[in-house]
Amino acid sequence: MKLVDMGITEFVDVLGSDAPAPGGGSASALAASVGSALTMMVAQLTIGKKKYAEYGELMKQVLKEATEVNQALLEAIDKDTEAFNQVSAVFSMPKETEEEKAARKEAMQKALKLAAEAPYDIMVLASKAITITGKAVGKSNVNAASDLGVAALNLKSGTQGAWLNVLINLSGIKDEAFVAKYKQDGEALLQASCDRADEIYQAILEIV
């Protein structure tokens, strides 16, 4: 059964169990998906309202974009766990001969790269969602302004959480060029995303 198909209680029970996955990466994707879902809600609470008629088309676009990124984030919940499971599977590979040890080492490096890429993809999606959320600030139903603020907080949390999962997997990767690229790109993405999320939150504080 896919994680995304579980009920909330069931997912939280699995998350809180001694099973190593799902873990922080899937939880980060979930947090970000909650954030983008709130942006979707705010857009729908604005579309069709006479008071916000001038922003109707913008909110339709926000809804469309947020819906697309939300779907990708939901899929990322399982993708992150699947990537981690590939790392776990390597530990069951034989390591008696030198050939087996070499094959195991190669498989581990490949699995770790996938495990680093999965949460990085979550960061990219969350960053897109933050940008989309920013479009709605000051142009959406004021009665739902607090929900946009919560959206920004969840998206920031998802971004930061995903970054931690990128880093912990990069720590075991021997490919220095791969590590350097993901650290450089990830740090830049993290900074830009968190700064934008903070701007949204501060703007909402002035509205509510």
From TrEMBL:
<dbReference type="InterPro" id="IPR036178">
    <property type="entry name" value="Formintransfe-cycloase-like_sf"/>
</dbReference>
<dbReference type="Pfam" id="PF04961">
    <property type="entry name" value="FTCD_C"/>
</dbReference>
<protein>
    <submittedName>
        <fullName>Sugar ABC transporter substrate-binding protein</fullName>
    </submittedName>
</protein>
<feature type="domain" description="Cyclodeaminase/cyclohydrolase">
    <location>
        <begin position="8"/>
        <end position="185"/>
    </location>
</feature>
<dbReference type="GO" id="GO:0003824">
    <property type="term" value="F:catalytic activity"/>
</dbReference>
<dbReference type="InterPro" id="IPR007044">
    <property type="entry name" value="Cyclodeamin/CycHdrlase"/>
</dbReference>
